Amino acid sequence: MSATTGIGTLTVRPLDPLRDAELLHSWVTHPKAAYWMMQDAQLQDVEREYMRIAAHEHHDAYIGLHEGRPAFLMEKYDPRYVELVGLYDPEPGDVGMHFLVAPTDRPIHGFTRAVITAVMDELFADPRTRRVVVEPDVSNKAVHALNEAVGFVPEREIDKPEKRALLSFCTRDQYLAARGVAI
Known about the structure:
The chain is of the alpha+beta class. Helix content is 28%, strand content 30%.
């Protein structure tokens, strides 16, 4: 993926659990990443978690770059096997997604919106992706607003082992409509 936006160029590369662990640790333990639920994680915990993801057949993680520098984390997963097993009836072409924008001392207006748009572009670049599924914490109002801005429609609240989540979906057509692209 490479997307040039009003805030610069965003790209993604596969995450390397060993090489990227220290960077990820600083991101997921930051107070702004509370919803990532790794606030108390040690470096080894982060390393282990992303090694587990790297080894998983149905879960992938990527480092997102802004102008070539690490700036966000993207995960995609198959909800038939990861995260949402038994919590909803998956449809062919469903892809689960998580994203985390790195903490910064110099926020760029519109950056998070550009990131979620780039992530959605990446997911829908695969013609097999028919619908993106997310399950953020019900109390994460900021991400609900971002999700809605790119076309997600909440379906219902669900109970996951670690949180009460808002199960939401975004089809390709909903995403394109939210972007103002004629369908």
